[in-house]
Write a structure and sequence with these properties.
- By secondary structure, the protein is of the alpha+beta class.
- The chain folds into 2 domains: 2-69, Alpha-Beta Plaits, CATH 3.30.70; 73-101, no CATH class.
- 24% of the residues lie in helices and 17% in strands.
- It has a 3-stranded antiparallel β-sheet, covered by helices on one side.
- It is elongated, with a radius of gyration of 19 Å.
- The protein starts with a strand and ends in a 15-residue tail after the last strand.
- The model has no long low-confidence stretch (mean pLDDT 88).
């Protein structure tokens, strides 16, 4: 068994689990309920972790993890109202609240 992904957000770990399992790779989530022990254990020790069951699937699973992390989610855009640069995730300018053109 090898660790392929970890994140403080269990939603993201379970989403990654779904992506990997969709390619018929057997995985499991470790520390799924450990966040209730915060204060007793280190914060990082409580993060949910995604582990591949068969070591032979490790490289293929890591390819899926890497591909999902490196997706281009668009590019910055320039507001036509105030000419402020906005991140691709914004649909409305953070400076003047004008909608993306």
């Amino acid at each position: 068994m090898k660790l392929i992904y970890s994140n403080e957000n269990s939603f993201l770990v379970n989403n990654m689990k779904n992506l990997v399992e969709a390619q018929r790779i057997e995985v499991f989530v470790k520390n799924e309920f450990a966040q209730g022990a915060l204060g007793e254990i280190s914060v990082f020790d409580a993060w949910p972790e995604l582990w591949v069951v068969n070591d032979a699937d490790f490289d293929r699973a890591m390819t899926i993890v890497d591909a999902s992390q490196n997706q281009n989610h668009g590019s910055e855009w320039l507001c036509q109202g105030c000419f402020e640069k906005n991140d691709a995730a914004f649909e409305v300018c953070w400076q003047c609240q004008r909608e993306k053109a």
